[in-house]
Amino acid sequence: MSGMMGATTHAEHAAVRRRSGLIDRRDHGVIEVTGRDRATFLHALLSNDVKSLAPGQGCAATLLDVHGKVQVVLLVWVLDDRILLVTPPGISGSTLEALDKYLFSEKAVLRDAGEDWALLLLAGPEAPGLIERLAGTGPDARPWSNGVATLDGVGVRLVRGGGETGEAEIWVAAPAPEAERVWKSLATAGAVVVGAEALDILRIEAGTPRFPVDIGPSVLLPEVPFENLMSHTKGCYPGQEVVVRIRDRGHVNRHLRGVVLEGDRVPPPGSELVAGDAAIGAVTSAAHSLSLDRPIALVMIRRQHAEPGTRIGIRVAERVVPATVSALPFDR
After folding, report:
1. Strand 29-34's sheet: what is its strand order?
2. Are strands 311-316 and 154-160 parallel, antiparallel or unpaired?
3. pLDDT of res. 4
4. Within the chain, which residues score under 50 in pLDDT?
5. Quick one: CA dihedral 219, 225, 226, 230, positive or negative?
């Protein structure tokens, strides 16, 4: 309920929606890929086109299993002499092992570089301007565009974000020993520090799934409505046959969607979706939206009920709460 939420969370949310907020991403992993064949090696494994990316470009991508299910969601940043893969918290080691299993004769070297880098995220309509003021430069507006800059005397890499919060975003990748200096510089310049509760509200409002909460090893890539995670024109990669077969000859049986609930109860993850007496899916993430002043949720819902505007119920503490299916992102 909005009234039960702290004033701090309200202020942090408002900062990202109206000005700029500073988010600590030092829990994310970084894998460095070097060697002559680094791009072709990753291109053959990931769901998106890596081979055509020039230095200073990037993409979001997934590593699938042979059944088309999502093993990890990665950010791919192409530098002059290496490629950096940014992983969700806590899985850089297992991701490195999974990639390494595919490495045979290719000239590519994988290394866990998490201790080298400190990742920070600046988000909000004023974020690009703030970076321009501090660094005298910034990446262009294309998602995952990146380049080097100097911020408060520290050499950093600036990367345009993909809209996880629904606002303009700049990732700042700093050398780990200089992280506090860069952090203080951004905060002193006016960016409001944003905590986990506000961030979760922002990304749910933006319809951004989090790995492994909303999208993970039980989810087929075509069940997620994010075309930016895949290329339909590239060659073979693990799980591609399933993805192409679904695209060309069939459909998935469920979809990731949003729902807007009536009342003020925020459903816990796992809450059952119902149509009449039938179970039709489950909540994956939920929050009280500060933009809509309503409870909202990301859900995995059966195809027959996934059309935006469809009325459903959500079972919350012995009650069935009415809700309406929404496209993503939520209309703020």
Report:
1. 58-64, 70-78, 83-87, 29-34, 109-112
2. unpaired
3. 61
4. 1, 3
5. positive
